[in-house]
Structure formats: C-alpha cells, structure tokens
Design brief:
By secondary structure, the protein is mostly helical. Helices cover 67% and strands 2% of the residues. It is built from 8 helices and 2 strands; from the N terminus they run αββααααααα. α3 runs antiparallel to α4.
C-alpha cells in the first residue's frame, strides 16, 4: 500500500478545502440560504409585521395569482423581448466595433483601453474620484459653479447650523452625485 501518496493526496485535499472554505461559507450564508428561505416563503402568506407566528402555508396560491396578473405577464413578456433583442444586438455590435478598432483605427490599443477602463476600474478608485469631485472644499471641481460665501450672504442663504456649505450637491438639494456615481459605467 502506498501511504506516502495517500498522505500527500490528503494534505492536498485539506489545503484545497482551506482555500475554498471562505468562499463556500460566504456563498452558503449570503446567497444559498436567502434563496432557499425566499423559495420557502413564496409558498406562504405572511405579513412581516406579525412575526414568524404569522406564517401560513398557502401552497401554489401566490404563483397562481402571479401568473394570472396581467401586469406581471406584460412585464415578463417585455423583459423576454428586451433580452432577446438587446443581447444579440449588443454582442454583434461589440464584435463589429472590435473588428473595426483592430483593423482600421490607428492606436487601437489606446482606444480599446479607453473603452475597457470602466469595466476594470476599482470601486475604491472610482469612489475616491467621486469624493474629490463632490468634496465640500471650495476649490474642488464641481463647486466652481456654486455661489461664493459673499453671494450666499447677500442672498440670505444659511444652513440650519449657520455654517456655509459651498457644495454643488448640497446647494441644490440634489442627490445627483449619487446617481452619477452609480451610473457612470453604463
């Protein structure tokens, strides 16, 4: 019997398990368990405010009601059509653009890099850029269009704390910065 080979195989197995265990636990806790719980709850009638005691099994009634709802069926049909049209069109356009860039554009590597950067940029780097853009500091990029403190005083604008905020996003009561930071890759 070859015990040396089996010890190495066992060691390799446990080493592999050690590497895969954190990801496996994360998947089981944060993905698989919520999916199973949601699937089980889909067969019940439950008002969350009643607590766990309020769960009542109702079988397929939720699914029957769902598939007899005209709005759901219309939305489902629209999503199927949208997916069936956009996925092939986007793939075809991507292939055509890639071919054009590779064959006919001088400096195609730079163009490819510019197109691909949004997909590989780190979330931390992107957040840092947006924090700098929307900083409260008066010399930041987006705050040049905001009135100065003297203009604010003349107009009589004060914040609740009595301090001046010369910030583009706060001045106009907008959360456009959040929308932009989420949608910049689209």
């Amino acid at each position: 019997m070859n015990t040396k080979g089996s010890k190495k195989a066992r060691k390799d197995f446990f080493t592999g398990m050690g590497f895969i265990l954190p990801s496996l636990l994360g998947f089981l806790i944060f993905t698989f368990t919520p999916v199973v719980i949601s699937l089980c709850l889909s067969f019940t009638s439950w008002n969350f405010m009643e607590g766990i005691e309020g769960i009542k099994f109702n079988g397929l009634a939720n699914y029957i009601r769902l598939f007899s709802d005209e709005w759901f069926l219309n939305s489902y049909k629209n999503n199927i059509i949208f997916t069936a049209v956009t996925v092939p069109v986007l793939i075809a356009l991507g292939l055509v653009m890639a071919t054009i860039i590779n064959k006919y554009i001088y400096g195609g590597g730079v163009v490819r890099t510019m197109i691909f950067i949004p997909y590989i940029a780190s979330v931390v780097a992107v957040c840092t850029v947006w924090m700098v853009l929307y900083s409260l500091a008066t010399d930041q990029l987006m705050n040049f269009s905001v009135p100065s403190e003297s203009q604010i005083l003349q107009a009589g604008w004060l914040t609740l704390s009595g301090l001046f905020h010369r910030s583009w996003s706060y001045m106009y009561g907008s959360r456009l910065d959040t929308i932009l930071s989420y949608s910049w890759q689209v």
